[in-house]
């Protein structure tokens, strides 16, 4: 099966282990990646050298999401490999005659440098069975197999040597050329052709050959000055001679010594797979696979590839976007590892000042609905503002985030109340990673680019961004009547946008407080009207205003004898909605319409149509926080106290649902907590009453 990795298209593409020397192949309309596997050397092994004990295979259909199919070959289960030699270097894999042939080098138990063996499987992810002996005639590393249009298969290895394979793909053909090579005072017969003859080849290794538009390409890393570049040559013959054409990729900017690669065409686009020590900047023997697009000129030559942090692939907006792997940025933007010990945590990108920006291309918003939000992992040096925009630094604002809680208490701009007792204990959030959430101003269509802009006066660092769709908590009510659900819960309600009511004077919601405030008139007809969808009301009421810092906690101000009274005026709208859950999530309702969530009062109305009189039932309610309920204009149930929503938390005395229409009203109040409720009727035996319908009073 394989294990799906929590990966993204950003470079490097494998985030849970070191991977190097990547050979990519296309099998069955998927890309299969066969890299070597760098590990930290165990005790007793050379600590400053390559250390590789096995091979994994990965696959992807979009170059964004990768599946690790696990280990396919390991050093101590190959008969001819010297145990614990840690020399499983760059491999390759090809398909021929119904089988998959995996070629790999290692140190033979018999000694003599490196040999190349082959393991065979029926599927590209294995299981692979190693042959008992290596391929006779090959002494070297980095095998690559080219299946040419002349019908033959050719194996390249070492510093560009090439030989024809027999049809069994396990032996060299008998008609290969042979040359005698001197190594000091020793002569050795070498099988195959030296394809690098006459080409730049100082410390050359890792050949990769392919065919395109009637030309054969020999690509290979070699040391131009102090570290490797990727060069290439072209020929009309698989075994050469080859003519050098130039560079595919120049030296890595940070001085990584090696660069090993492969090149494929996938769905009409050419790609270069290579490695870099991104996740091990102080140790270039632990490397990671990267991918970038490759382009041919009209004459068949290759345009030089500039390594990018962004990599390739289209990132779904609903998947974590490592925004630090950006496509382009202002000159002052910098990146660094988040954790220098656990390097796979990846990077952060710092936008130092107002006007700094970075762009991340190819994000797919197809799965994002209008009811969605943004999650970002950020940190800042002070209070500031930044935006997520579309396409450019001046583009349409998708979301804006304001950080206003990270100024230390002693600063002049600290929030109100910061100078009090509680202020002295307030945590300084400068330089701390914060998970910020905000609603979207705008949802782009299809695939587009994201741009982050620093709009404030403090440095901002960003780890990732993620867009999420909210669960569907409500649907617009249909015109047809509906029944309660299988457990008798009522899902259809008219909900009024919340009345702003801080409730700071009584956070425990005593009976006396609730009766006073629930029975106060906030809007005309609150106990008589049957609201309709979209109907607006004017809420006008007197509200005592507690001063800043007032509360019940240690060190806060005492309530003044004569609190200020303010007239509150709100224009609110009724909404006809069917809840997707048995508990009606009022805080999600308020959030959806951009209203205040905490310190509010909600009104709910539903109309119940009974085909006959139903006697001796009880109204069963759960609510967060306190609530009061009226049936046909009479108070039926009061839930006092600061409570959590529990099914059937309180029940009324015995009541009667009359034949025909019954109007049930509820008022739900909260303080600092979230709000929801659930309502049903129970009979004498505690069973849910369901022989009625709920109508939409549109």
Key structural traits:
698 residues; mainly beta; Tachylectin-2, Chain A; Jelly Rolls; 3 domains; nine-stranded antiparallel β-sheet; six-stranded mixed β-sheet; 3 helices; elongated
So what's the overall shape? elongated
Largest sheet: 9 strands, antiparallel
Classified in CATH, the superfamily of the largest domain is: Glycosyl hydrolase domain, family 43
- What is the mean predicted local confidence, pLDDT? 90
The CATH architecture name of the largest domain reads 5 Propeller
Which runs of at least 5 residues are low in confidence (pLDDT < 50)? 414-426, 548-557
What proportion strand? 35-45%
Structural class: mainly beta
Number of strands: 47
Q: How many separate domains make up the residues? A: 3
- The number of helical elements comes to 3
End-to-end CA span? 53 Å
* Rg (CA only): 35 Å
Briefly, what CATH class of the largest domain?
A: Mainly Beta
Q: Find the CATH topology of the largest domain.
A: Tachylectin-2, Chain A
- Helix coverage percent of residues? under 10%
Task: Describe the protein's architecture and organization.
This protein has 698 residues and is mainly beta. The chain has three domains: 292 residues, Glycosyl hydrolase domain, family 43 (Tachylectin-2, Chain A), CATH 2.115.10; 155 residues, Galactose-binding domain-like (Jelly Rolls, Sandwich), CATH 2.60.120; 222 residues, no CATH class. It is 3% helix and 43% strand. The strands form ten sheets. Strands 34, 35, 36, 37, 39, 41, 42, 45 and 47 form a nine-stranded antiparallel β-sheet that branches. Strands 23, 24, 27, 29, 30 and 32 form a six-stranded mixed β-sheet that branches. It has a five-stranded antiparallel β-sheet with strand order 1-5-4-3-2, with no helix packed on it. Strand 29 and strand 30 form a beta hairpin. The longest helix has 8 residues. The two termini are 53 Å apart. 42% of the residues are buried.
